[in-house]
UniProtKB/TrEMBL annotation:
Membrane topology type: Multi-pass membrane protein
Subcellular location: Membrane
GO biological process assignments: transmembrane transport
Pfam families recorded: Na_Ca_ex (PF01699)
Entries under InterPro entries matching the protein: NaCa_Exmemb (IPR004837), NCX_ion-bd_dom_sf (IPR044880)
Name of the featured protein: Cation transporter
Keyword Transmembrane helix: yes
Alphabetized UniProt keyword annotations: Membrane, Transmembrane, Transmembrane helix
TM region positions: 6-26, 47-68, 74-97, 109-128, 134-152, 193-211, 217-240, 252-273, 293-312, 319-338
Main location: membrane
Domain Sodium/calcium exchanger membrane region: start-end pairs: 10-122, 198-338
Source organism per UniProt: Sulfitobacter alexandrii
Domain of life assignment: Bacteria
Residue ranges, annotated region (Disordered): 167-189
Length: 342
């Protein structure tokens, strides 16, 4: 059992799981870019749906495991803490794209819509927590609503990607979402998709190990479930998003990078749906503590700032990054200080 391992072996297992998840995510990003070209889905949609969902798998395994064990706070904080961390990673990636503000260069209507969709999905749990404590078969009605809203939003995002009703103004810094290699278009995506599926399984196994180690940290060192969920497992399971974003920016797949973060965060809201189903002592929204709402509010604020940056499309700001990236880093740093000193 992982929980019975001595500390040095526990940390070794933890590090090994992180390495597996990160390396798998690097290869998955490369394959996602190929799949986008071969299927002509577009980088923004591929990043939001395929890559975003795959790199989020480790995190959902952590939240579901925590909910099954009855730790609602761990499950909830892991989900919302990951959303905040991944939004921060997009600001970090902005530092690496020197030509212009990343949100300016990666202008894409589908990303704007997914950001709006994410704000809506993050607002629903707040309504559930503030509303009456109800559950049917142990599931809160808001969980069903979130799932249906995700499906509807995903379909609309696909429609926007295929037939946009408006397009962003082109500038010399705008990076067009076009296949990097014309030879890829029309080729079969079966091979890359099969390899991608294998990598997804590896990331899921890594997530299970991370969840077991995180639970051990809580019990062995008497740490707060909210602290471990929002700042340890959430950040660790979000590392694939950091890696895939940096790799995508380096490859010039800017829509894939931005879409991967926003789409991954949108998919991460389903962690709460899955956790509510796995948690068998009633609605998970009324089992968590008020403190867990803190990181949900942080993620909501960071997403709103990101959306504003995508609309503003500032070409260059302080240190050649957009003002939204500066604000996102400031919001996260403030939240981190408050969390650690509270």
């Amino acid at each position: 059992m992982i929980s019975d391992l001595p500390l040095h072996l526990l940390l070794l297992v933890f590090a090994a799981a992180i390495v597996v998840v990160v390396l798998a995510s690097i290869k998955a990003t490369q394959l996602a870019d190929v799949i986008a070209d071969r299927t002509q889905m577009g980088e923004a949609l591929t990043g939001g749906l395929i890559l975003g969902g795959a790199t989020s798998l480790a995190g959902i395994v952590v939240s579901v495991n925590a909910a099954l064990s009855g730790d609602a706070s761990f499950a909830f904080s892991n989900a919302v803490g990951g959303i905040a961390a991944q939004t921060l990673f997009l600001a970090v990636a902005d530092l690496l794209h020197k030509r212009a503000n990343l949100e300016h260069a990666a202008a894409e209507p589908a990303n704007l819509f997914q950001a709006v969709m994410l704000i809506v999905l993050l607002s629903l749990p707040i309504g559930a927590m503030a509303g009456p404590d109800i559950a049917y078969l142990g599931i809160h009605p808001v969980s069903v609503l979130m799932f249906l809203a995700y499906l509807a939003g995903t379909r609309l995002a696909s429609n926007i990607s295929e037939e946009p009703m408006w397009r962003p103004v082109k500038t010399p810094e705008t990076r067009e979402d076009e296949p990097e290699d014309d030879k890829e278009a029309g080729r079969s995506a079966r091979g890359p998709a099969t390899k991608f599926a294998v990598l997804v399984v590896l990331m899921g196994c890594g997530g299970w190990v991370i969840s077991q180690v995180g639970g051990t940290f809580i019990t062995r060192f008497a740490l707060s479930s909210s602290l471990v969920g929002s700042l340890i497992t959430a950040v660790v399971t979000s590392l694939p998003e950091l890696v895939t974003t940096l790799v995508a920016v380096r490859r010039g797949a800017l829509q894939l990078a931005v879409g991967g973060i926003i789409g991954g965060n949108t998919f991460d809201t389903l962690f709460l749906v899955a956790s509510d189903i796995a948690y068998r002592d009633g609605s998970i929204f009324h089992a968590v503590e008020l403190h867990d709402l803190y990181w949900l509010a942080t993620g909501l604020m960071m997403t709103a700032v990101l959306l504003g940056g995508l609309i503003l499309r500032q070409r260059a700001g302080p240190a050649r990054i957009g003002i939204e990236s500066v604000l996102i880093m400031g919001i996260y740093a403030t939240a981190l200080v408050v969390e650690l000193t509270a």
